């Protein structure tokens, strides 16, 4: 006997049929997009080397323990440790190893370009960036001061200070520094040029900023190359604590410094400038992770994606339990909720990879794990990627069969869709923790 269907039910079935067709088209498109994106390289290695491997670094100023920086090593998944195996913590803002004195820069008082006394106390209250040069330099000093000038221009709307400290006070008098400041068009109300007794300046740089500095006193020394010094610009917070070092010859590092300096001044991380998005790393500098060039909202997306995968896992398991207990309506609601969660995940996933490429030129984060965990990670990743491309199509067909009341066909496909969907959701969370927490890689 043919079953008669009332008009409202026919309308509902037609509506669900149209929805199913729409979901099918959407699923085919999104599966293709996922496949294309996930086949992109996991990440591109970025050059390079430490600025100097033999600098003498005072790890614990209070204990007076001097070690050679070449003895600092990176322990996988742990970070940087000293020669005693003691873990050096990371700075929460810069992510760099917090090797500088926790109590801040020791007291000093130098003279600026106008003959005024400037001390560490007078600099407190505002974050500042400080570089070390000498005006007669025929080496990298012009590049260092040029980078500082660019930093000054890009932070002029913010309440921050810049400091250039001369390492050649015998020649760099206040009058000389005043002319030097004019040469670079410096606004000396916010960019101080300091000079002071050479022994005090060099001691401050070596023991507080932990940077190399020295004078060549040999008879063979060359004019304009009498001093050896770092090209790093140091970031100091409003309390006088050093927070990180950034190579002034590397535009990428200076872009990160600008953003950290503004963050310290305002409490809000600024968006990258348009020109910073196109930065290419120079050679022979410390590696900068691509994520450091991302705005804060983009950095949160991997964690959000992991949370969405975790939520999908819970919904899938709960939905399975409900159908086993015969709670069909609850099962239906949970499966639809799982599908919508996966749709939101897909949107966040696509936005993250678009932003990552737009801001850094990178298509993904590089996995830093070594040893046996590396093939394990890539085995999980490859199967995750392959099956993730199938999930939208399988899920949409399975759901559409249920909406049409094709229960037997729905069950036949569900036994395939469920374990694949569950595997993709679980491994999505696992990949996130392996990539961002268990093996995040060494920080500069």
List the topology elements.
Elements: H1 7-38, E1 56-60, E2 65-68, E3 73-75, E4 79-81, E5 109-112, E6 117-119, H2 120-123, E7 128-133, H3 141-154, E8 161-166, H4 174-183, E9 191-195, H5 198-207, E10 213-215, E11 227-229, E12 232-236, E13 242-247, H6 251-266, H7 296-299, H8 301-324, H9 328-360, H10 373-388, H11 391-403, H12 407-438
Helix pairs in contact: 1-11, 8-9, 8-12, 10-12, 11-12
Family: Belongs to the SCO1/2 family.
Pfam families: DUF420, SCO1-SenC
Transmembrane segments: 303-323, 335-356, 376-399, 420-439
Say which CATH homologous superfamily of the largest domain is assigned. Glutaredoxin
Spell the H/E element sequence: HEEEEEEHEHEHEHEEEEHHHHHHH
Widest beta sheet: strand line-up: 6-5-9-8-7-12-13
Low-confidence stretches: 1-17, 19-78, 280-288
Coarse shape: elongated
CATH architecture of the largest domain: 3-Layer(aba) Sandwich
- What Rg, in angstroms, do the CA atoms define? 29 Å
Q: Count the E strands.
A: 13
Q: What is the averaged pLDDT score?
A: 79
**Main beta-sheet strand count, sense and barrel state:** 7 strands, mixed
Q: How many domains is the backbone divided into?
A: 2
CATH class of the largest domain: Alpha Beta
The CATH topology of the largest domain is Glutaredoxin
Individual helix count: 12
Q: Which percent range describes the beta-strand content?
A: 5-15%
